[in-house]
């Protein structure tokens, strides 16, 4: 699809140009503060991080004793993740992803597939006990949002928790991404099949400084299959 090609090219260009204002150099506090709720006391769970970039969250999750699988279309981001964090890795082709590759830490705890998010499937990745969606749903083109949600639902094992960080703001202030998602929209795209619990809402000072307007609300939600 032409729209998919444009999406891939947009984000590859952002990485190539070093325009990564979304990247958190210290990791995500919402994840750390709500991690016990997210994993729900489970040990050694398998967690998916869509559109993972080079987030430090993957290393942190692995250090808690869990297995992490990411998907990222920019090879530059993946290589920077492993080299900047001094994580030895190997790379290999994946028969089910003719256009993609797998980068995997030598200890096997962190795997990152280099491909478009819409190239992967349950057949490639299997099922997950948790999904950490920080900046992925809000980055997807609005016309592809339901397609993306259907993919996430297909990857959720029974008991899977999806921890979602998203934004609420007046869409007339900017075009996105990241795109705003109000409560009604979140209920519309996930509410039919999932329970939605909002864990927190707070003024997002970081984004207000980056984007130059307010109010911008950062919302953290826990999404579970009904």
Describe the protein's topology.
Blueprint: H1 2-16, H2 29-33, H3 35-39, E1 46-50, H4 57-63, E2 67-72, H5 75-84, E3 89-94, E4 97-105, E5 110-114, H6 122-125, E6 128-134, H7 145-154, E7 156-168, H8 183-190, E8 194-203, H9 205-211, E9 217-225
Parallel strand pairs: 1-2, 1-6, 2-5, 6-7
Antiparallel strand pairs: 3-4, 4-5, 7-9, 8-9
Describe this entry's structure for a reader:
This protein has a 9-stranded mixed sheet, sandwiched between helices. The protein is globular and about 45 Å long. Helix content is 31%, strand content 31%. The protein has 226 residues and is α/β, with parallel strands linked by helices. The relative contact order is 0.14. The two termini are 32 Å apart. The protein has one domain (2-17, 27-225): Rossmann fold, CATH 3.40.50.
């Amino acid at each position: 699809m032409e729209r998919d090609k444009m999406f891939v090219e947009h984000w590859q260009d952002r990485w190539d140009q070093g325009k990564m204002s979304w990247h958190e150099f210290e990791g995500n506090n919402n994840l750390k503060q709500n991690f016990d709720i997210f994993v729900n006391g489970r040990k050694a769970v398998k967690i998916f991080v869509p559109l993972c970039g080079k987030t430090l969250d993957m290393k942190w999750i692995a250090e808690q004793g869990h297995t992490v699988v990411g998907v990222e279309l920019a090879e530059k981001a993946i290589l920077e993740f492993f080299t900047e964090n001094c994580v030895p890795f190997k790379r290999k082709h994946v028969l089910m992803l003719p256009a993609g590759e797998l980068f995997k830490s030598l200890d096997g705890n962190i795997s990152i597939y280099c491909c478009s998010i819409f190239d992967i499937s349950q057949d490639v990745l299997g099922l997950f006990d948790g999904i950490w969606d920080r900046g992925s749903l809000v980055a997807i083109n609005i016309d592809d949002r339901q397609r993306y949600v259907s993919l996430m639902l297909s990857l959720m094992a029974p008991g899977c928790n999806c921890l979602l960080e998203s934004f609420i703001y007046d869409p007339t202030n900017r075009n996105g991404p990241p795109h705003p998602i109000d409560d009604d929209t979140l209920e519309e795209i996930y509410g039919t099949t999932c329970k939605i619990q909002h864990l927190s809402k707070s003024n997002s000072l970081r984004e207000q400084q980056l984007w130059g307007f307010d109010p911008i609300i950062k919302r953290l939600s826990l999404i579970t299959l009904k």
